[in-house]
Task: structure prediction
Amino acid sequence: MVEPAGKNRSVEGRVWIALVAALALLAVIPGAIGNRFYAHVLVLILLYASMAQSWNILGGYCGQVSFGHSVFFGIGAYGAGMAMVKYGTVPWPGVIIGAILAAAVSAVISWPCFKLRGHYFAIATFAIVEIFGRLFLVWDWIGGALGLDYPIMDDSWKYFLWSSDKTGYYAGALVLFVLVFGVVRRMERTRLGYYMRAVREGQETAESLGVNSSLVKLMAMALSAFFAALCGAFFAQYNYRVDPPMVVSLDMSMKFVLITILGGMGTFWGPLLGAAVLIPLQEYTRTYLASLGPGVDQMIYGLLIIFMMMRQPRGIMGFIGEFSGKAGKTAKKGGDDNAAS
Amino acid sequence: MTDFAQVLADGLMNGAIYGLVAAGLSLIWGVMDVINFAHGEFLMAAMYVCYWVGVLIGLDPLISWVLTGAFLFLLSAVSYKVVVRRCIGKSAMAPLLATFGLSIFLKNFCLNMFTPNFRLLSGTFLEGMVFNFFGMAIPAPQLAASLFSLVMLYVLYYFVKRTRTGWAIQATAMDKEAAELMGIDTERIFTLVFGLGGACVGIAGGFMASYLAVFPEVGTLFSLIAFVVVALGGFGSIPGALCAAILIGLVESFAGFYIAPVIKYVAVFALYIVVILIRPKGLFGW
Result:
């Protein structure tokens, strides 16, 4: 993976600002996202891009491929859900508590899991998802298998609930998106960001240069879990309910991983590209292929994953690299590890 | 006391079957360092084959396991040739995610073709037969499946340890380049290993269809258990997989009976987390 050079980064910065401005304009111009289906797809793209970016902090930048992020997602979702349903208040304190709790839980989980490498780490995170998923199912205090159903409420920012129109959710998703992506963008340039990439490229080497790899991984994990929980809270608010299989499941964990990998792991734009391709595909195939019977959309999704892994495991960013690599082959002076793969 | 014996017997029987399911995964992992995420869906496919062969032709699971084993050998070898082979070496997670894609595809293909309904094969030879030992009730289909699993595990172990092809498999697992220099066609070995892994799960699935209902999601839990068994046993080790599988089977049945049924898989996965805290590469890993 190539470091963006100074000039590239300033170009990237302008693209980033233009993108945020354009997305913000959509929310401000009345009727721009009047169609509920488009609004729904846009909200999901922003939400899943944020989820994938939160995973990308640990999986992409720090190189620890975790399949356990649905646990943090679920904790965040339940934080908002509990505040709304059990305590009958606004969701915000629940959101904050959920996110902090998720970070704390992630730190505890890290302790056994970060001793493991490769497939052992992956399987341990699967096991963690199963443990949490099943405990959530039998924990009556948080609603057990039935989950938490939101009461019917008026549309308001105070409760972050809208039923008639999706503009509020869109604005909320945009705030979440800007927050997560903005922090990651800053993080790329901080000491921690460089340490994380150093650990990814070679843990022993990083340690020999004085990087405390356990601490770096722990911080990446906690940050990643915090943002995943925020996304979870949004998800619960958006769906008006939360139950265990909906949030804490292997399929949900896989969404975090697949969107990022489809877009390009360890890159800033990858999660957004992945979500922008996968979510419309998923929503449109679900709508238009419904006549072919259940499961066809998922079959296409499966085939897409297979194809992507066979053709270009570095995702859409990898494809872009291929093209720009071909175009600017003479201008570029080596250093690109594209050739190796 | 009879409760205890009954729970013990259930745990042992389940453990033996988990052993055969996990052995296939373990073999693939050990030789190729690939996690086959579609393993559970292979099990599901085997159970569907057994079910439909039973319904349409009236073949009993006691015979049709040969068919399911052969079918899964082919399915698995073809998935290796078509998908996995092209993913190996690109990135560490590519084969895992590609097989995950395959698992989604297979699961939803069966959902589309056969509906999500539960289907149980009825009228099999062993159906309803129960042996009573000292107050324990041992259902014949489970007993047959578990004993047969042990036999198959022994055959697999013998094949890997005692035959020339088995030696070639071991050599490939130890050092692929060196094995190639010795004239071993590692590509064929990989195909064979993937096929054998599928055949194990195919045979297990064939027997399981005689007492478990088939539905598109049936493999998910089994594949998770198989992952844990393999990681617990230490990858590539067939005896390790068997020991870990029996341990998992016992924990599952004891936790389910003495604590609460809903807790049994929590106990299984928690046990795994505890063990890897002490031995990060599993009980028999190195």
